[in-house]
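Chapter review: from sequence to fold.
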Amino acid sequence: MEIAILDAVMRITFPSFIVTALFFAWAGTACQKYSQPERLRRFTAPQQIPASQKNTVSKTLENPPDSASVADTIPTVTHRAVVRTTLGEITIGLYGKDAPRAVENFVKLSERKFFRGILFHRVARNFVIQTGDPKTKDKRKKDEWGTGGESAFGEPFPDEIFTDAPSVKRGYRRGTVAMANRSPDANTSQFFFCLRDISELPQQFTIFGEVLRGQNIVDSIGNVEIIPQLNGNDGRPVKSIVIKSVAVAKVRALTR
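The token string follows.
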């Protein structure tokens, strides 16, 4: 009886066409929310940086190697890339054995001068700096910065996270260069530099190199004034930091 009365009231108070309209309005809002492009998988910097971590490197990894296996965590550098920015040069050693597809992508894009004019669109203090989005060449697309990317292969390529690879065993330590993506196996041209050892970062991002020279430049970028976006320590640089050029050369065998 009560159900029947309630049903009658609902029919009088909310005619079917209004209920239907309300439902579709809600559904449209929900779909819009989840169809908007993500700014990549949101690994974020801490809101407050502990004093003990400022300008320091953490001493432990999630699975630290013992002394007998240290050699297993030294990746082979197959290429050197000199990234010239408006703040200085960064020399990167590329791991062509650990992440052949990612390195090939980076090399091919560099040869096409793809990175010229691209900005560092993200600075997460004491965490990472990020670049590689071609949309940053267009100031009119500021709201979309961080959502773009192009692969040298014409389509996104898979992650290369092999448990026996030295770079994976070593993890995301200070100076590591890794691919950034919005979902698994969706790598294009975006990548990031680690500003410290980040043992808490899950093994979801392909490590394809490390800084050989110019970590001071990386640190300088990591300390620039930002416009907060994800939180107070994570946002877009106030003054543009531009990649002027990337030159890559193959090396015979160089390990570190």
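Two observations follow directly from the output. The CA atoms of residues 123 and 222 lie 6 Å apart. The chain has two domains: 2-35, 51-255.
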